[in-house]
Structure formats: C-alpha cells, structure tokens
Amino acid sequence: MGRDGGADVLTGAEGDWPRPRLLASRCLEFDHCRWNGAVVESRFVRLLADRADFVTVCPEVSLGLGVPRAPIRLAGRDSASARLIQPSTGRDLTDEMRDFSRRFIAGLGRVDGAVLKFRSPSCGISDVRVHSPDGSGGPVGKRPGLFGEAVLEALEGVPVVHEGRLLNFALREHFLTGIYTLARFRAAREEALASRRAGPLVAFHSSAKLLLLGTSQKEERRLGRIVAGSGSRLEEALEEYRAGLGRALARPAGRGAVVNVLLHAMGYFKDRLEPAEKGVFLDCLEGFRAGRLPLSACQAVLRAWNARFPDEWLSGQFFFRPFPPDLSGMEDSGRGRLGR
Predict the structure, then answer these.
(1) Does the pLDDT of residue 212 top 70, yes or no?
(2) Which stretches within the chain are classed as H helix?
C-alpha cells in the first residue's frame, strides 16, 4: 500500500480507479442528434463510457432546432464578427446560443475534462470555418464554435479536446493523465472538506510528486508551498492547489524531464542493483529519450525492481499508473506526436 493507503500503483495493483466526470457532445456515441440524424462514432468515447460519468449536451437540440434540422454555420466578414446563422431560414442564433452556453455552464458543476465535436459551429473548440455573409467564396477565417468558446473560457485548467485529437496516442495519454489526476484530486478535495483536515491534500500531493516533476518543477514547488500552509486556510488552499494543478497538467511532460524522474526513481534501488542491471536501464532511458522506446518499457524495469525491493512511497506514485492502462492501447493516427 502507498502512504495514502491507495493501491500499489507501481507494482501493478489495479486498485479502485476514480471515475472522471466529463462533459461531452451528445452526438459523440450517445445519441443520433447531428443535423442529419446521425451519430458520430468515437471508439475512445465508447471505451471510456464505462469508466467515466458523462454529462452530455447538444446545444442545437437545447435551442429547439430538432433532429433532423437545417444546418447552421458561422458567418461574418471575419472571425471576430462571426454570427451563428441558419442559412435556410435566415435565423440568427448567436444570442440564444450564448445565453444557453452561460446557463448550461453555470449549472454544470465540477468536471475533470471535456470531449467536444470537432469543427462544430456550436461545440467546436478550434478550426470552425467562418463563411462570408452571403456564402460566396471560401472561408474567411476560423475560430471556436460559440458553445466551445464558452467552455474554454469557463473551464480553465481542465483538459478540453475534440474527438480527433484522441486518435493520436501521445495526445490521448496526455488527456487521460489529466482527467484521472483531476478526478483523484476531486476525491481528495471532497475528503478534505468533509473531514476539515489537510491530510487528504497532503497525501494527494505526495502521490503526485513524480508526475508533477515530469510536467513542471516550478508548479510542483509552488503546489508544495500551498500544501505546507494549508492547515489554517483549507478551502482557500484547495482552490489555489486546483488552479496550480491545472497549470501543471496543461502541457505534456517533456522527455528530458521524464528521464530525470526515471533516474530519480532508479535512485531508490541503485545500491542494491548489479552494474549490468543499471546498464540495461540506462540503455532503456536512452532509447526513450531518442523516441525509439515507449515510456512503458522503462517503467516495466522499475516495476520489476520494486517487486524485488518494495518501496512504499514509490509504489504509490501516480506517475507509474496515471490512468487505467487498457484505455491507451488503441490505434494511433501518427499525427501530432509529442516529445521535448
């Protein structure tokens, strides 16, 4: 067991994974509510549906446009002046959509992430085409959809993606790491508030240390200071910690920083290892640094060592099992690979 009483993450015990609370476009596997009555297939959303609690939304249906419906689109002289229009009727839905977005988000509650429909004039978070007012010529610009824009503004520090990004292995793992880390924090926050004790926050930060060192050493130190001073100002500290955690998780971990974390973990065993064993691990690290080997190869060596020389603190680190491993084993588009 780890210091916080959780599962032995490094040694491979499944434990009780938290259930992330996620916002999703309803047309992504949940309902036939696209403008033409279709549903959008997403293998990732389908797989995650059994592991997470989804709040789904179709802004167009909520505005009473029905299914099927005449298409809507963004139109204007440029991206900044774009309005949400239904060309077949001439109806301007801009103000209605913005009002709905504000009301929906106000009642949403805490979520750990969002998956929204790519390039939708309502839900899109980027690359939504803006057409000229008369519909002639090509797009005059690109921008987020109106609902997607409101989500991005309101859910700062929360992973928000479109379904296409989740086809890429590295981007998918970054999203999964974010939503499961935030779900773990949400559980720790609720426990801390219920008990009026900082202990759950202290335990969370201890278990997240290596993960945070791999993403942002600066934020890890800042979060550590928040935890150290949380005893007399618990609620304020929890909110500050959540904001900092979101910043730390915003960018994927760089290879160089992850190599440093792996070397740090190796230090727990180095006095008990044979020189040949250390050499194998260092070769593995170099393969990972160069992009020839996945991170899991290096982690497998550490897991084997931890089975021989169990370390309680290291076993409880989120870094080694940030999310259920079966969720990442899917196809890879090959686009947008990460690595710094």
Answers:
(1) yes
(2) 43-48, 59-62, 94-106, 146-154, 169-195, 199-215, 217-228, 234-249, 255-266, 275-289, 295-308, 312-315
Whether pLDDT at 340 is above 90: no
Instruction: Give CA angle at 9 (4, 15), nearest 5°.
Output: 80
The position carrying tokens 């949403």 is 108
8 Å CB contact between 47 and 163: no
- Residues counted in the chain: 340
Look at 4-18, 47-61, 142-156, 323-337 and tell me which has the smallest mean pLDDT: 4-18
Region for 93 from its dihedrals, namely left if φ exceeds 0, alpha if ψ lies in -120 to 50, beta otherwise: alpha
**Which DSSP state fits 138?**
S
* Distance (Å, whole) CA 271 – CA 285: 19
Q: What percent of the chain has pLDDT over 70?
A: 92
Q: What is the 3-state secondary structure (H, E, C) of 273-285?
A: CCHHHHHHHHHHH
CB neighbours (10 Å) of residue 250? 16
Overall average pLDDT of the 117-143 stretch: 95
> In Å, how far from its chain's centre is CA 64?
31
Looking at residue 282, its pLDDT comes to 96
Q: How high is the pLDDT of residue 311? A: 94
Residue 7 confidence (pLDDT) above 50? no
Element (H, E) at 83: strand 83-86
Domain range summary for the chain, segments of one domain joined by +:
21-167, 168-340
Query: Do 113 and 139 contact (CB within 8 A), yes or no?
Result: no
Amino acid at 247: R
